[in-house]
Amino acid sequence: MRVSLGWLREFVEIPVPAAELAERLTFAGVAVDRVDEPGKDVSGVVTGEILEVQPHPNADRLVIARVGIGEGELQIVTGAMNFKTGDVVPVAPVGATLAGGLSIRRAKFRGVESWGMLCAADELGVGEDHEGILILPPGTPVGVEAGPLLGLDDQILELDLTPNRGDCLSVRGVAREVATILNLPLRTPEPVLVELQALATDRAVRVDIEDPGLCGRYVARMIVDVIVKPSPLWLQRRLFAAGMRPINNIVDVTNYVMLEWGQPQHAFDFDTVTGGHVIVRNARPGEVLITLDGQERRLAPEMLLIADPGRAIGIAGVMGGLDSEVTAGTSRILLESAYFNPVSIRRTAKALGLRSEASNRFEKGVDPDGCLRAADRAVELIHRIGAGRIAAGAVDAYPAPYVPKTIILRPERVEHILGVSVPPEEIKGVLERLEFSVREAEGRFLAGIPSHRTDVAREIDLIEEVARIYGYDRVPPTLPFGTTTAGVRTAAQAFEVNLKGWLTACGLTEVITYTFTNRKVFDRLRFPEDDGRRRTVRLRNPLNEEQAVMRTLLYPSLLDVLARNYQRRVTNAALFEIGRVYLPREDALLPEERLTLVIALLGRTPADWRRKDEPMDFFHLKGILEAVIPRAGIGPLDFVPESGEPTFHPGRTARLLVGETSLGIVGEIHPEVLDEYDLPHGVVAAEVDLETMVALEKQSPMFTPLPRFPSVDRDLAVVIRKDFPVAEVTAVIRQAGGEFLREVRLFDVYEGRQIRKGCRSLGFALNFRAEDRTLTDEEIGQYLGKVVGALENAFQAELRAQA
């Protein structure tokens, strides 16, 4: 919300600098992000009249404008096409400075010299519009400084309001806060109406509300002899300051009043409303409306509409219909000023994807008692700027007028909550300046809640109002008292933090993805129709169809991340995520949430001057798991071949086991799945169930003294069939190696002409050591003989070499 300081001064005197006012508003709960001075960098910009426009001889998308600036003329080359001869525009001659500090210099475009620049709104700091040159209203003087005309000498407060403070979405609402904080009188001028007594609105207009719960009030006023044209400069300047683009005088007045009073309004072409009969009703099944943006909208029965007896003419609080739009040919206007149910408007705007300044205010709740006042202000302005004449009276459908709720406020309760004694007369003064009605009874205050503050519902809310205006800085600091405890992580939380640290130390980067997904992902993962993981928890109010169900797997989210990055030329990535998956339960309302770890690797490891890059393949990922999981006191790990996972490559996938307990799966993603994600082949991933992992019995680390006697290393190479897993071979070696075998490490795998077909040579390094003596060659030889014999018996292995 952008609020002009000049506009605020029409309601309240402001004797303090803008920076101080911003600070005091922020301390009072109306946060000011910054004070903007739109014209601080702008200098030398003047108004100019377009005298002639010619096409550029050497460029189709450029034109040459001859511009009069009072005492002389300028030739300016521009790419904008939205102006014509006779228009008055802001001109930056050579030497002028624009917003952001841009200095204008003489330039040459395709052989034609340009001695300045025609300015768009954003180049002057009066808005964000850069679609064309800013066209000033007819009659704007030529050759004068543009800054004061455009309000560049003003200061703008940019507010960051909390959702409950819809009352501050208006200049009048902020002025109330300023007057209360500074303890100054608040000016509220009443509209002065010059009405046509011979033409009564209630004779031409009828309003029916079918559901008062959805439309609490509907005010209609009528304007005749309408002249649609650009707004005067002062009105456009106010809209620019608020960040809005002027359209025409009628639309601009409705936006002006919305900004001033916080009441959105809509103008209908009266002659398009059948019989002048307005019906506020729900949409009928299958009903369609073409809105002002030219889009056909299919309406749901829960959506609130503005209609006439024959058709819908607008979506209540969201957007009007195209065929009832005010155009240059409009001669009569029906002006709407209404209160709609905030929840209904929020749901409709969200369902249609139509969010606007108006719907934002309706969603937060406008002042139902302010509808007529805002309508009177709008017709007053329309008459003042010569845009039309006012029909007498208004049609005001107000089925259940607002009845103020009364809340008891105890001064002693204020002192108890705030820890400071606030004088009763100051409590009363604060509430009255905020326009609460206050009566005293038996040492207590009876506060009537005004219609613009429906967020105040309890005594504690009134205490908050007193506290923020009294000043939080005036509340003395005190030490907390009572029993306190030190915050510590649970064992599961500590495990998760440690696990993230270990994974990061392995070179992985943590990502966080949405817990929502869509059912189509299971088709991309090649899941059969009867796969239990297709059973998902569906959201009642999904953000969109792509995020309509809760995920039952984690690794698809990382595949999405890899794909998004790969499309942006990130060809190497090592990612992990620790998150929850959601598994439906037949006997419970809520799903089972299981904490899960997923790792995904793409490409190669980084290279540096010490080592070459290496592929991040299955064995690289296996090494990460072998480095990380045992640090949690869990092991030994077994990797058992797995071919039943449709998402993974059947020959390059393993089930991760600890004993008989499965922790998850690790392997290369199936090429067909990678094609679905537009990823290169070779991506590997692992998914580990951390709930199961945490539940396993932990092995406490044991201290082992440094060895007193040397160890003995022996190498062993055996030829063995390729279908025997290395893990099984290693297990047999460990079992046969005896009590002195400390380590078994595979250091070589060879397949070549010297090895018979279907077999391979496996080279193992064996380390033997005794704690009480140095082992002899004879002892080592006996153990190696047992190992070779065991391999021959178990796998029909042949000894190839021994050293």
In words, what does this structure look like?
- With 803 residues, the protein is of the alpha+beta class.
- The chain has 21 helices and 39 strands.
- The strands form 10 sheets. It has a 7-stranded mixed beta sheet with strand order 27-30-31-35-34-33-32. Strands 11, 13, 14, 21, 22 and 23 form a 6-stranded mixed beta sheet that branches. Strands 5-4-3-6-9 form a 5-stranded antiparallel beta sheet, with no helix packed on it.
- The longest helix is centred in the last third of the chain and has 19 residues, at 777-795.
- The radius of gyration is 38 Å and the shape is elongated.
- The protein starts with a strand and ends with a strand.
- Output the strand order for the largest sheet: 27-30-31-35-34-33-32
Number of strands: 39
Arithmetic mean pLDDT: 92
Strand content: 25-35%
Low-confidence stretches: none
The helix-and-strand class reads alpha+beta
Largest sheet: 7 strands, mixed
Radius of gyration: 38 Å
Helical run tally: 21
- What share of the residues lie within helices? 25-40%
How widely separated are the two ends?
A: 81 Å
Large-scale geometry: elongated
Write the layout of secondary structure elements.
Blueprint: E1 2-4, H1 5-8, H2 18-27, E2 31-36, E3 46-55, E4 63-68, E5 73-78, E6 88-93, E7 107-109, E8 112-114, E9 116-118, H3 146-149, E10 156-160, H4 171-182, E11 195-200, H5 201-204, E12 206-209, E13 215-224, H6 233-241, H7 249-261, E14 265-269, E15 277-282, E16 288-290, E17 296-298, E18 304-307, E19 312-315, E20 319-320, E21 333-340, H8 342-352, H9 357-364, H10 371-384, E22 389-392, E23 395-397, E24 406-409, H11 411-418, H12 424-433, E25 437-441, E26 444-448, H13 459-470, H14 491-505, E27 509-510, E28 516-517, H15 520-524, E29 549-550, H16 555-566, E30 573-583, E31 592-602, H17 618-628, E32 637-641, E33 648-658, E34 661-669, H18 671-676, E35 684-689, H19 690-695, E36 712-721, H20 726-736, E37 741-750, E38 759-768, H21 777-795, E39 798-802
Parallel strand pairs: 11-22, 12-15, 27-30
Antiparallel strand pairs: 1-10, 2-10, 3-4, 3-6, 4-5, 6-9, 7-8, 13-21, 13-22, 13-23, 14-21, 15-18, 16-17, 18-19, 19-20, 24-26, 25-26, 28-29, 30-31, 31-35, 32-33, 33-34, 34-35, 36-38, 36-39, 37-38
